[in-house]
Design brief:
This protein is of the alpha/beta class and 461 residues long. Helix content is 29%, strand content 22%. It has a domain at 55-375: Alpha-Beta Barrel (TIM Barrel). The protein starts with a strand and ends in an 18-residue tail after the last strand. The structure holds zinc ion.
Amino acid sequence: MESLLIKNGDIVTAIDQLNADIYIENGLIQAIGKDLDFSADRQIDAQGHYVFPGAIDAHVHLELPVMDTVSADDFETGTAAGIAGGTTSIIDFVTPNRGQSLLGALHERKDAARKAVSDYAFHMAVIGFDPHTAQEMEQCVINEGIPSFKTFLAYKETIGIEDQALIEVMKTAKKLGALVTSHCENGDLIPELQKQLIDVGKTDPQYHAQSRPSFIEEEGTHKAITFARTVGVPLYIVHVTCREAVETIIKARAAGQTVFGETCPQYLLLDDSVYDKPGFQSAAYVMSPPIRPKGHQKSLWEALKAGQIQTVATDHCPFQLHGQKDMGKDDFRNIPNGAAGIENRLALMYTYGVLEQKLTLKQFVEVNSTRPAQLFGMYPQKGTICAGADADLVIWNPDTENTISAKTCHHRCDTSIFEGFQTKGAPTWVIVNGKVQWDEGNLNVERGAGRYIHRNPGSSL
Ligand SMILES: [Zn+2]
């Protein structure tokens, strides 16, 4: 296997920054130090570049079947787009159908994921609790390396979980040392608001946002936290979007509860004026929770900086505006929810976080890589730069300027919710398991080269 020597990079982890060389062999980091003298198959001069641990996107939906269609990126194109932007591992989801076994659903997702070009893992969604669920959850943790379980308070009619089942999932996760994650929007109130809007002919995409106001996320966040408090189990809240949810999380943490939060670039950088776009264009921004009014973004940035929200993921789940999203042109409830972001996360967080002093460089590494690795049981194999770790590295040119456009992104989507955003800073090289897979603008990925990541429970909560 190819050996690689990276010279003179400015290595940045969540806790350190130093200028040194990195020697890589057999897909692993073998040595880090000044003036390393190894003869390698290839040498990269990283002078003037940062070297970050490969970013981990802990929330993506590739090849996700939704409403008689499937999210536009498959495991190959989605992970390839990730690599082009500096993301070297993903965590997707297994979501069983009602009545389907967890392990049966996992088997199907693993089959689909075999074509991934970077390493991948799954969170297991638990949508109900039957006599087999506890044992299957245990098998997920022990045999399958899945120590995180997703619950949906929204989507009651399909994958949403009932209260009693949520209690049982939390109790079982507690016994297993696993992390429960929750999508926190009240699943009974949303259909009520949707109906109120549809009944008066408000069917356009913009009404999607009105059907899911921030107070409904606040209620969901409070509910999940209260359940976790009652059971005494750690909780991770996915895609936090609003001030009220942030305040609810901070209050619980201040009272000593173990609660973590994740947010996404779209909630940090966009406001609900996106829903004013003419015609059906605003359907590109139909996602759940929706983009919030001006003001909420500031709360999210402050919580991220203060460590009250720990991770940034993308919820990458693209659908083509023409041919998929337009299934809902007469009724916003039929618009598949989601947007693309996996390729843009690092450049956006660097430009609008680090360069605008909303995050330090180390915090940038922490929220995009280190904390996701720790919380989801992949650390220190991933999430940092140390001898023995997987050689997943991003060699970052802080001066590269780009303008985001759907036309130049590698993911499959005819629109970008970040169209026209200027970014500064981009990867020059991305190393995945010791191989240079993004090489000065060229994507050299190999279908199926990604490996399934067997994760460990609870080690770094
Ligand atoms: Zn999601």
